[in-house]
Design brief:
The mean pLDDT is 88. The chain has six helices and three strands. It is α+β, with helices and mostly antiparallel strands and 110 residues long. InterPro entries: ArsR-like_HTH, HTH_ArsR_DNA-bd_dom, HTH_MetalResp_TranReg, Tscrpt_reg_IclR_N, WH-like_DNA-bd_sf, WH_DNA-bd_sf. This is Helix-turn-helix domain-containing protein. It comes from Streptomyces sp. NBC_00180. Keywords: DNA-binding, Transcription, Transcription regulation.
């Protein structure tokens, strides 16, 4: 077993675990360009500012709402997306600063 000085950062491991699921990775890719992948005419808030409504993500994914919510919660725990409540709806957007930091950290680690 590796010592603490050479062990991977737990946050990096969490992010990589979140990205290891193809559906979670697809959700993150869609959220990179929300105006391209989701219907803007039905948005109740600015997708660039607050994100995409979970109902729109669920409709595009074609999965149960509970499954999509679980996937987004995993991405949120890993710090890859941020959630914002607008009324009774939760909107998700990418955390670009965290993603850039993760890419840099991965480059340094590997």
């Amino acid at each position: 077993m590796a010592d603490a000085a050479t062990s991977p950062d737990p946050d990096l491991v969490s992010a990589l675990r979140a990205l290891s699921n193809p559906v979670r990775l697809q959700l993150l890719l869609w959220l990179r360009e929300p105006e391209r992948h989701f219907p803007m005419d039905k948005a109740i808030a600015d997708p660039g500012e607050v994100g995409v409504c979970v109902s729109h993500i669920q409709a595009k994914a074609g999965l149960a709402q509970s499954t999509v919510s679980a996937y987004l919660a995993e991405l949120q725990r890993a710090g890859l997306v941020r959630a914002t409540r607008v009324g009774k709806w939760t909107h998700y957007r990418r955390d670009e600063r965290r993603i850039a930091g993760l890419v840099a950290q991965l480059g340094e680690t590997l």
